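Reagents: none. Just compute today. L,D-transpeptidase.
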Amino acid sequence: MIRSGLMLGILLSLVVTGPAIAGPVAADFGRAAPSGDTRRLADWVVRSQDAQGRPFIIVDKIGARVFAFATDGTLRGDTPALLGLAEGDVSPPGIGDRKLADIGPADRITPAGRFEASMGRNLAHDILWVDYDAAISLHRVATGNAAEHRLTRLATASTRDNRVSYGCINVPVAFYETIVAPLFRPANGVVYVLPERRPFADLFAAAIAPPP
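Predicted 3D structure written out:
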């Protein structure tokens, strides 16, 4: 009777509580207000565990904004960003082997897609490599060319003046040093860059597919 009662209690508990959920099924954006595609992609990353337990970043090129997530899909911070001068979603062939002076305005593209990201260095600072072959990284805002007014561009409410770089993703110094670097220094992660010309489904079809 005792064993029968115990089994009945276990069965009732399973009926009431249901099966255990392995992890979160959606990203936690807190009070941030992302675009629909940003939220859709972040939820899929968390639900599918596409980042494999690593931190991840989503770059919304149309909104000129970067969203950085901890390993559990919780947003650690978001910020305006500066992006490639030219619109487009594919880096020109061999762009990573060119000198900056040889990269014309039409080729200054921030490519879209999923990228395995890792910390590294350029000639002066640590950076987060996004696409090493194309020489694309996410880094502190570059202010070497005063005529570009990059700090001013970051501070304006408009997104129309956020296109200025050679393709790299520029974020405020404080955002890089307090959010990006602490997330990615312990382990590599993933950077997802949303397209601006190609359809979302072309690059992230799995994120809009119905769950199995």
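Residues 24-207 form a domain with the L,D-transpeptidase catalytic domain-like fold (CATH 2.40.440.10).
Action item: order primers for follow-up constructs.
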